[in-house]
DNA sequence: CAAGTGACAATAA
DNA sequence: TTTATTGCCACTT
C-alpha cells in the first residue's frame, strides 16, 4: 500500500538525529527506491509538522524545499539553525558537515 | 483511462 | 557551471 510507504518515510525522517539532515534521495535509498519525489510527496501529504521533522529533509544540493508548508523556506531555515545546523551563503545546508550518516 | 503536475535527482551536453 | 533530458511514481483533473 502506498500509505505504508508514507509511513516508512516518516519513520526514517524521525530517525534523523538532531543536528543532522537527510536528502530526499537518501531517504528514498533507505526505502529501497530511487524516487525522491515520492518522499517529497509523503512529507507534503503529512500536515502534522509537529510529528515529523520535515525540516530536516532537504534537496540533494542541501537547498531547502521551495514550497515549504509552514511559512516558506525561511521557517525551515530558522528551524534548522535552531537544531544547530550551519548554513552556507545561498541558504544552503552544509551537507558535508550535517548530512545524516545512517546506520 | 489518459494526460498533467509535483516538497527530486542523476546524467548528458 | 548551467540548462536540458529522463526516470520515477503518486495524486489530480
UniProtKB/TrEMBL annotation:
Keyword set, alphabetical order: DNA damage
Domain Methylated-DNA-[protein]-cysteine S-methyltransferase DNA binding positions: 4-85
Lineage of origin: Bacteria, Candidatus Gottesmaniibacteriota
Top-rank taxon, per record: Bacteria
GO molecular function: catalytic activity
One example of a Gene Ontology biological process annotation: DNA repair
Xref: InterPro entries: ATL_DNA_repair (IPR052520), MethylDNA_cys_MeTrfase_DNA-bd (IPR014048), MethylDNA_cys_MeTrfase_DNAb (IPR036217), WH-like_DNA-bd_sf (IPR036388)
Identification of the protein by name: Methylated-DNA-[protein]-cysteine S-methyltransferase DNA binding domain-containing protein
Pfam hit, one: DNA_binding_1
Amino acid at each position: 500500500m502506498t500509505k505504508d510507504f508514507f509511513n516508512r518515510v516518516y519513520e526514517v525522517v524521525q530517525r534523523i538525529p538532531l543536528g543532522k539532515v537527510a536528502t530526499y534521495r537518501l531517504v528514498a535509498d533507505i526505502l529501497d527506491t530511487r524516487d525522491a519525489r515520492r518522499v517529497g510527496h509523503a512529507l507534503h501529504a503529512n500536515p502534522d509538522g509537529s510529528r515529523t521533522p520535515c525540516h530536516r529533509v532537504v534537496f540533494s544540493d542541501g537547498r531547502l524545499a521551495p514550497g515549504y508548508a509552514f511559512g516558506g523556506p525561511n521557517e525551515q531555515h530558522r528551524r534548522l539553525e535552531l537544531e544547530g545546523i550551519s548554513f552556507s551563503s545561498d541558504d544552503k545546508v552544509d551537507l558535508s558537515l550535517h548530512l545524516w550518516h545512517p546506520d
